[in-house]
Design a protein that fits this description.
The chain has about 300 residues and is mainly alpha-helical. The chain contains 8 helices and 3 strands, in the order αααααααββαβ. Helices cover about 65% and strands about 10% of the residues. Strands 1-2-3 form a 3-stranded mixed beta sheet, with helices on one face.
């Protein structure tokens, strides 16, 4: 049974690793094409979208790096291994996107002052390819995005990029029929706003996790009630829950029990309940009502 589980886990790791590599190759090829067309036809919409897609490639590379680092086992210096790197990479990815937003806004202001001739046909065709590339990438990441902040961040980026490419196609069509080249700059500002909105949740969650906040998928009140009603537990204190990585959580808790002979049974059942709540690493310290918790930080 154990061997079957290990085989499945290895298959999932290999599959996700391959998906990341494929997404990186596809998006890097498109960035080169989109940036080249943007330079040739002086399209800020294409250049800003290419810049954003390049930041996505870098983000995918970072996510792949963190994903691989998280597979290494712990050692005497890093007892949890390098799993926390997945949280740090999520934070870096969010910061990169914010920098990209600033760059797009600055360039858009410059283009407002000095507008240039733009080919609507070139914009539409290139962005149309972008819809296909970003859509395929989002589809590849969609299956694994529910349980990993890194993958979810990459998926959201690709999904939003698909919508952005749709916007660029629309701007190209408008330019073809109206000649209003300023629409390209306006679309760039819309792109910046979309990126900012899609990045905010990722930034907040990754920042909180890096500060060892309770992960968003953990219902603290439900866990407190579950511990309070656990058979054999008279009271509890010193409950702390934090993220070891973007996919694993840990918790420590002190529980007060009456019958020490039932200690192991109580601990086993409580750990099973916490595992079902999404906490994989659990440390439980048992006390009796007569003993006093001597830790000054105990709360």
């Amino acid at each position: 049974m154990e061997q079957h589980h290990s085989h499945n886990h290895h298959h999932e790791v290999t599959s996700l690793n391959t998906i990341f590599i494929l997404c990186i190759v596809i998006n890097l090829a498109f960035v080169i094409i989109e940036a080249g067309v943007g330079f040739i036809y002086n399209s800020l919409g294409l250049l800003s979208d290419a810049g954003h897609n390049l930041s996505d490639v870098f983000s995918l590379l970072l996510s792949l790096f963190a994903f691989r680092m998280s597979q290494y086992h712990g050692n005497q210096h890093f007892t949890y291994g390098y799993k926390k790197s997945t949280v740090l990479v999520s934070l870096v990815n969010a910061i990169i996107l914010l920098i990209a937003v600033g760059a797009i806004v600055i360039e858009s202001i410059y283009k407002f002052k000095q507008p240039e001739t733009i080919s609507g046909e070139a914009i539409s065709w290139t962005a149309g390819i972008g819809i296909l590339v970003n859509g395929v990438t989002a589809w590849l990441l969609m299956k694994n995005q529910k349980h990993d902040l890194n993958v979810r961040g990459a998926f959201l980026h690709m999904a939003m990029d698909t919508l952005v490419s749709v916007g660029v196609v629309i701007s190209g069509i408008i330019i073809i029929y109206t000649g209003l080249t300023i629409i390209d700059t306006l679309i760039s500002l819309v792109i910046a706003a979309i990126i900012l909105l899609s990045t905010w949740k990722l930034l907040k969650e990754s920042l909180f996790l890096s500060l060892d906040a309770v992960p968003e998928n953990i219902d603290m009140q439900a866990i407190e009630q579950m511990i309070s009603h656990a058979p054999g537990v008279e009271s509890w204190h010193h409950l702390h829950i934090w993220a070891v990585s973007t996919t694993e959580n840990a918790a420590t808790v002190h529980i007060v029990i009456k019958d020490l002979s039932q200690m192991e049974n109580i601990k086993w059942k409580l750990k099973e309940s916490l595992h079902q709540q999404g906490i994989q690493h659990v440390t439980i310290e048992c006390e009796t009502a007569d003993s006093m918790c001597k830790e000054k930080t105990c709360c």
